[in-house]
Amino acid sequence: MRNYLTSIVVATALAAVFATPANAQVVLGGQTWTNTGTTLSLDAVVPGGNQPLNIQCVICGDHQPQQDSTFGYTDFHNSGNLSDAIFFSTNVIGGGNPGVDTVGIGYDGSFLRAFLAAGGDPSLQFSIGIDVNDTGTPQTLEAFALLNLTQHTVLAQYSLLQPGGALIPSQNNGTGFPDYTLSGFNINLGTDIQAGDQLIFYARISGANDGPDSFFLVPQQVPAPIAGAGIPGLIAACGGLVAFARRRKKQQEQGVA
User: Fold this and answer.
1) Is 210 helix (H, G, I), strand (E, B) or coil?
2) Whole-angstrom distance, CA of residue 19 vs CA of residue 104
3) Is the pTM above the cut of 0.85?
4) H helix and E strand count, the chain
5) Most-buried pick from 36, 144, 163, 236 (CB within 10 A)?
């Protein structure tokens, strides 16, 4: 297991060393996309939470009964007989299947931004949790990407333009419980994402040998304010000083009496 996890770190480091040309192009789903984005980081870290409780699936190997009713996703119905999974997300409520290596329906960028903000992620930076299920033989994450469907650009990618990918042996068995984290996503408005742009996810796994593998959107939670810090703490402190001054004045008046 340690060798497998080490290979992930090495693969990620190599991807950073051999940087992708800024304007490299790639064909996905029969369409050409121009790379303008950043390279994602893959870590053997189980993200907080799990899909059955609190995070939404974007590309899933099975039906997601706990999915938010407003959040569409791809359900490619993998029962263990699919060796190579190549799918785009599709914004179909209740789950839809656009077909292997077929572009689905995009998410409006404003929808994703509002969803992240409502979930406590005003930075609009998030991760993707990867749920892996295998028979003991590791599968390979060949590539993952966030694409701008309107501009036909690659916003963020892992191993999309460099062959090889990384072995991802299951370490948190159970459908809906992510094993790995892909981090580095940012969907703030800018030259690469403009108001009204449609966004879509892409995933490719080879050597699939067990039940459904899935990809979940994990908001970057903002820590709650520390007690006593900031403006609320200052107000509370001032209130305490006023109360203390009143008690002292009352004691002095009683002493005089």
Assistant:
1) coil
2) 28
3) no
4) 3, 14
5) 144
